[in-house]
Each structure stands twice: as structure tokens, then as C-alpha cells.
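Protein modeling request. Please complete all fields; requests missing the sequence field cannot be processed.
Requester role: graduate student
Desired output: 3D structure, C-alpha cell encoding
Chains: 1
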Amino acid sequence: MPHLEAVNTAPTRPDAWNAGNAHCRVRYQLLAEAEPDLLCRALNLFAMQYLIPQQVNVQRADEGLSLEIVVDGLSWHRAQVIAEKMRNLISVSSVELHGADPLWVETTLATG
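Delivered output (112 residues):
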């Protein structure tokens, strides 16, 4: 009977959820219809990840809302996943995601 050994092989793709990935500060900019529960639904996406935004700005203009949310401690991949979830919220017309930390953005653009 052959001796059993643990096989240590490298993963075939990078683990995007790994806690060792570089974290950054990101800024989300949302445009949406003015709905009473939109702010709660958008912020709940961060609450489910145990994240508290650094800054939240909301402006209402007629029938629309403009939201800007700044969050620390996200990997770029996780930030993109949350942006996609925001795009799927009812009444959201657009979501833009930007790196809010200039040093991180320069490093990412240079290496990416």
C-alpha cells in the first residue's frame, strides 16, 4: 500500500478574497432615482461585510439622488464586487468606482 503524502500544489488562480491582498480606500459615486429606502439598501452592502464607510455624502436634486461613499479596508476585487451589487439595486442608474488613495492608485496602474 503506498504511503499517503499531502500534495502541495499551487492554486490554479489567485485567491481574490485572501486577507493578504492589498487593501485600499475607494470612492463610489452613485446616481439613482430618489427612493426613500435607497440609502439604507446601499449602505447595507457595507454592513453585511462588517465595514463602516469613512464618508457618506448624499444630495437630492428633484427626482434624483447623488451618493458618494468612501470606504477603507477593501481589496480592489471586493470593491468591484460591491460596485456590481450596487448596480443591481433597483432605481440605481449608474455606479462609478475610483481608488481614493493616490499612492495606491499610482501603484496599481503601474503594476496592473
